[in-house]
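Exam review. A common question shows you a sequence with its structure tokens and asks you to describe the fold in words. Practice with the pair below. Do the first one on your own.
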Amino acid sequence: MSDHVDGPRSIATAEVTLVEASDVQAIVLRPRPRPYRGEYVILRIGDARQGREMLRRILPHVAPADEWWVPSLPGWLGIGFTFEGLKALGRAAGISGQFPDRIQARHGGARRDPARLRCQRAGKLGTSVWHARTCTSPWRSTPETMQDLQRVSGARAQGACRAPADLGRLSDAVRRTAGGAQPLRLQGWPAQPHVEGSGPAHAGSEAPIKAGEFILGYPDENGETAQAPVPQELRHNGTFVAFRKFHMDVAAFRRYLRAQASSPEEEELIAAKMVGRWRSGAPLALAPDRDEPELGADPTRNNAFSYADDMKGLKCPFSAHIRRVNPRDALKDEVVAVNLHHFLRRGTNYGPPLPEGVLEDDGAERGGVFLLIGAHLQRQFEFMQSQWATDGNFISHGTEQDPLIGNNDGDGDFTIPARPARRRLHGLPRFVTVRGGEYCFIPGLRALRWLAALGSSSA
């Protein structure tokens, strides 16, 4: 590791290194428009020549972060590769050992994922989309299954458009190359860290975090700049992503609230305490007693809060989902470098909403697909998942886990601080189950062109 910023393309001004947004994929730095429609597509790379030709055809649709909504495009794509996909493009030589083992592993993170990864067996999916059908058995990490999956998921593309017609045109362009797709809809945005040097801070954002925490080629919070993977043409302005597909048992969540509450109003309060926000998105830190829809709808205010005046958790419980996954300043008196554990999140829902008031599951698949982006996923996404979400010791709650995404199996607890006495809920079931996951590399725009131009002699 070194303090040297690799390559002359990074522009340093005082203590801030400006991110070369024209070379970073928009999916990394920019939120998608509202409203929008999107699809995730899995593309198979059969051989190096076919893969490079596929990439050349897709490249015009991949938007840069500086002009991420280009008028000439009906929509935009983001594209990432599994390690096997990069090898299939002809980059087997020189990169083995240069990527994090999470990226190189053939099991896609299954054995390291504390969330008991489950998914549809890959089998003969070929070039079709990763369907959201009901899974009846765990993803068993057999060599055969993993090899099938890796052959299928050589590249993964995500498209976003404002209108269904635009989505159709963009999807057709991708399908003419390879693959299939599944409609998705926007997931409510969590608070996002502001990447230093990437442009003006969005309203309500916290202090900026060094770009090297999220993008390769820039100094990180430790003052270090990643020197791998090599070569620099592949590394610069790229990043890593943990791809996760979650099934959400909405009916079970509603039944649990009904069993714990004596009125609809109390159901709403308990739900807000578990999430850390009201249904509108208004945070408990700013609206502790009742929902404030205007606050929830105001992006300049709904993320502009801290826990400095709530160190006893009387407004937002210590175990509330949003406080666990982003403690903000709640750990300021602890020996915790919170800025080392941030990552960027891009989330989308799939499946039809469960009708309001329905308490029994209707059998439909519904949940979320998330891209969890960072340059150091082991101490970012994986740390959050294994420590902040599933370990209660850092908040003096013993074995208590995140009430929404924790591994609760009917024996989970959730503590709501209150005066004169706290309330503790028991018997939390599992509300969220991981259906599938993979680790990928998201190259910069120049790196994509470099990969597309490789000759067969590079294989």
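Now try the second one, then compare your answer with the model answer below.
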Amino acid sequence: MSRECVIKGSWSNNDDKIVVKLQMIEFEENGVTIIYCPALDLSGYGNNSKEAEESFNISLSEFFLYTLHKGTFYNEFKRLGWKVHEKKKSKPMTPPSMESLLRENANFSRVFENYDFRKFKKGISIPA
């Protein structure tokens, strides 16, 4: 059983965080549940949806901690195809389109073409 997650959100300058809307997919492969975020090229896995989501949240936290600590946060987002806006009044970052992700990310294309999806919504906060 597979599902697609759309994460909704907004930009808040006062809280120094960005809450974004991202496409996420959950699918099962070889008896393992996987949650994958193509816009961040991150995944988590487990024996069920709950374990996979917990694993994904750990991956996401480690990604933020590492890139912020190393000073590569915005460069990593640019590498992943995000548009990083310089003006503070506009949205500071825009994720790549689904078309771009499908064209540029072979792993996402493989999963997208071989698994069925269902949608669910969840917010992700990205440090600003």
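Model answer, second protein: The helical segments are 49-70, 73-79, 98-104, 106-114. The first strand starts at residue 3 and ends at 6. Full marks require stating both points clearly.
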